[in-house]
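# nightly structure sweep
# worker-07 picked up a monomer target from the shared queue
# config: single-sequence mode, recycle default, output format = structure tokens
# input follows
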Amino acid sequence: MNPNKFIQDFAGLGIRLQGYLSGALDVPDVDQAIAHSLNANPWYTSYHIKERLTTIVQHYLSSSKLQAWLSDYPDVWYDYQKDITVVMAGNIPLVGYHDYLAVLASGRTVSVKLSSKDAFLLPALHNLLCSFVPDWIRRLRYVPSVPEDTDGLIATGSDETAAWFTARYPHLPRVVRGHRVSVAVIPANITQEQIFGLQRDMFAYFGLGCRSVVRLFVPKEFDLMRLTVFEHLPPEASHSGFRNAYRRQKALLTLQDVPFTDGGFFLLQQEEGLFPPVATVFYSVYTHINEVIDYINANSSRLQSVVGVAGGFKNCIIFGSSQHPQLWDYADGIDTMRL
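# output follows
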């Protein structure tokens, strides 16, 4: 496969999806997939699905970005006879789209095991691609489990799922991912605009993604109430499941006499852990940045990204961008194209 052909086809998909998102193009198949997804997963919303589609269009299906991405792999060995299985999670919409894209970009055939929580969106996007380039039909198949004849494996899920796949398929070249989260480091001079960006990092997809910020490092004397001031109240604030989780956790902490800061629809709790319940964000107070660095280094295997000011940390992601990865921002820092 000519890489230019891949770029042309998927950039063409991006143009069509952009037309759909702007309302200039009707794609009934995508409309139907969104409707089915909302019924299948109570944590999916139309807003989040379209937010995810927008990210895919802007960062994954841009012709210039596809060219820049593939320029790092001039010696990719294309082999349609090789099959890579992708086991997708369903915590956020189309979370496995990058893996699907990478396998096809490498010239392999992809076998996709869809999550029951997200079983409609990827087929709709692939069908849209095939509607103007039918050649892609033969490059994907959907499977109920990992085929015995597959040549490689990319799997994403819980820590238990990751351990199972590692033990079950020791003979396969593989990338297996467990549960990770993201953290943010707040500087003393953070601006309100940066806080607005951080709020999207925290609440997009209800904090369920591996790039969702669920733990904060705040400087001593920082006023936590600044985090409860919004430019616009986020759509997550009115979601019944999110509000129920907020009320439940608030009642529990109140009964246990555990202090917290009430954000009106979310809680800030001082806690050293990394995995808070839904609608809660953990934080700790630091007096010297070395305390933060030590924590990040000690927990690096559990972290997907660190959000903060540009240049603040190695591979630091600026406020407001954690949910918008580029093609070269590989999950867990593992280059799946090298698989």
